[in-house]
Design brief:
The chain is mostly helical. It has helices at about 1-20, 35-55, 65-80, 85-110, 120-140. The protein starts with a helix and ends with a helix. The chain has one domain. It is about 75% helix and about 0% strand.
């Protein structure tokens, strides 16, 4: 049994590496403009989010890592947004993503996956409520 678990973990790690998730994000030029830096930050956050999700799905990471990288990605995109409509679209997407993550975490917990705890369920709920609150505040502005 332990051999099977070890093989699965090793296989998951190989999949992560082969997917290119271990490659560093592109570095912005030293004289990059604010727009270029914002774009580079969005790309780096998207890369971190993708890697965190892969790790979580392979039971090698935590939901907290996914949540943290999702928040960075949303914040970077909000900073790069040019108008209120773009910000509202990003925040609406954040709410949908948070609801989906909350559902997945609850399913993992209910299925008894050892790496998912009740604290992860509560954290996912908090992240969803936080996303909904950010959207409500933005709509009120």
């Amino acid at each position: 049994m332990i051999r099977i678990i070890f093989t699965c973990v090793a296989l998951a790690f190989v999949v992560l590496i082969s997917a290119g998730a271990d490659q560093p994000a592109k570095v912005a030029a030293p004289d990059a403009s604010m727009a270029e830096l914002r774009k580079a930050r969005v790309e780096a956050a998207a890369e971190g989010l993708a890697f965190a999700k892969q790790k979580y799905k392979a039971a090698l990471g935590t939901h907290q890592e996914v949540s943290s990288w999702f928040r960075r990605w949303a914040d970077a995109r909000l900073d790069a947004a040019e108008n209120k409509d773009q910000r509202l679209a990003i925040l609406t997407e954040s709410v949908a993503e948070a609801k989906g993550e909350e559902h997945l975490v609850k399913q993992a917990f209910d299925a008894g996956i050892q790496t998912t705890t009740n604290l992860d369920v509560i954290g996912a709920k908090y992240s969803r409520i936080e996303a909904e609150l950010r959207l409500a505040k933005a709509r009120a502005e």
